[in-house]
Amino acid sequence: SPWGSGSSAYIMDLAYTNIAGSPVAAHGGDQATKLYQKNIFQALSSTYEEGVEYNMSVWATTASTNEQVLYLAFTDGDYANGALAASNYNLVASSTAIVVPNSGGATWNEYTFSHTATAADAGKRIGVKVYGRTETWCDDVTLTAVTPDPEIISFTSLGSNVYEIELTCAPSLKATTQPLKSTDLVIGPWAATPHAATSAGPFTTTNNLNVSGTAGSGNPVIYVESTDDEAFYGLGQP
Fold first, then answer.
1. Per-residue pLDDT tens over the stretch 138-170
2. What's the Cα-to-Cα distance from 227 to each of 25, 159, 180, 232, rounded to whole Å?
3. CA 208, CA 197: separation in Å to the nearest integer?
4. What's the confidence (pLDDT) of residue 100?
5. Residue 115's closest CA among 85, 88, 153, 75?
6. Cα torsion at 131, 134, 140, 142 (round to 10°)?
7. Residue 58 to residue 166: CA distance in whole angstroms
8. Do the beta carbons of residue 46 and residue 117 sit within 8 Å?
9. Closest listed residue to residue 126, CA positions, set 51, 43, 53, 191
10. Considering only CA atoms, which of 109, 111, 46 is closest in space to residue 73?
């Protein structure tokens, strides 16, 4: 395929323009897309997941002697009947103007844009959009998704040996993540520790996160009990 990607990337299914005889040689293969002040877009079958970072990569050049401008964006790809919504392509997040330097089509540069999906984005169909000025060409467009590891944000004593743990965890990882505890940070061992969805308990050991509440920041919280003089907590699998 003239459009390349890594093994974990999505291929953009875009309309190619045959550029034989044009002033631009494709970055990969023998085809590229001339944007010509137009938007090109793609809707994927998968949906955004809260907390997941989506990274879009585009190779671009210009056949002009003047610099051109490129925009990369993530959208809600649920276009009714295949038609684009009037509200800026159902925009979710957009880059600022990216300047493509004048090279007469001789030099391709890689440009990237990343967006971490919010709770408001979750469940929306993933869409991507590329816009460029008259003499902007693009090629080898890929999209990758990175699910961050669960992380403890804060650890707060509530008294009576009960502690609140504020954390971040992508929904897809909650079923395989649990709180871990050790009394020795260096040598461990780390073992699963009982936790609860409320400060009143009951506190039980499970192989997933029992989360029901959220902190003021909107992050999920869990609760643990401890009578140790010193203990360390983490998230994962023992």
1. 888 899 999 989 999 999 999 999 999 999 888
2. 68, 11, 15, 12
3. 12
4. 92
5. 75
6. 0
7. 36
8. no
9. 43
10. 111
Residue identified by tokens 């709180």 is 179
**Among all chains, which residue has been given the structure tokens 């039980």?**
204
Cβ 55 vs Cβ 112: under 8 Å: yes
Kind of pairing, strands 53-62 and 220-225? unpaired
Tokens of 94: 């957009």
Sequential DSSP letters for 82-103: GPPPTTTTTEEEE---EEE---
Instruction: Match 């699963």 to its residue by tokens.
Output: 192
| Amino acid at position 23, single letter | P
Residue 228, both tokens: 């140790």
Does residue 88 come out as left (phi exceeding 0), alpha (psi in the -120 to 50 range) or beta? left
The tokens 């395929």 sit on which residue?
A: 1
| pLDDT tens digits along 154-213 | 999 999 999 999 998 888 888 889 999 999 998 889 999 999 999 998 999 988 887 766
**CA 47 to CA 77: how far, in whole Å?**
9
- Give the Cα separation of 236 and 238 in Å (integer): 7
**pTM, full prediction:** 0.74
Under 8 Å between Cβ of 218 and 122: no
Residue 88: the pLDDT is 55
CA 120, 125, 128 angle in degrees (round to 5)? 100
